[in-house]
Design a protein that fits this description.
By secondary structure, this protein is an alpha+beta fold. Helix content is 15%, strand content 46%. It has a single domain (32-121), classed as Immunoglobulin-like (Sandwich), CATH 2.60.40.1220. The chain has one helix and eight strands, in the order αββββββββ. The strands form two sheets. A five-stranded mixed beta sheet has the order 2-8-7-4-5, with no helix packed on it. The protein has a three-stranded antiparallel beta sheet with strand order 1-3-6, with no helix packed on it.
Length: 123
Amino acid sequence: MRAILTKAVTTLAIASAVGAMAPVPAQSHTFLLDSLPAAKSHITTPIDAVKLHFGGRVDARYSTIHLKNENGDILASGTQPQLSREFALPVPPLSPGRYHVNFRVLSTDGDIVQGGFVFVVDG
């Protein structure tokens, strides 16, 4: 009887140890999935907004996006209007040139994600 009890306790201890070593899914941070215009793209048709699509929802109160020209002048700036994966910034008509999009978002897991990219408007 004692041998059976010892074997059962040992089996339970091993099973618990193996279960404790099982991988735990990591919390995913928000990241930029795609954008319109795309990073490093050359566009020839007018756009009315820069659109960002994130892998997770971003907090409305602390998320910002800026569009700058090649001289660093801010042409458009905005905040996220609501908790969402989508972020659209209305922009003025753009002349031919190089433009920089910078964003800073607060993901719902509490991490701040910053990034940016460049696109070109061809004449």
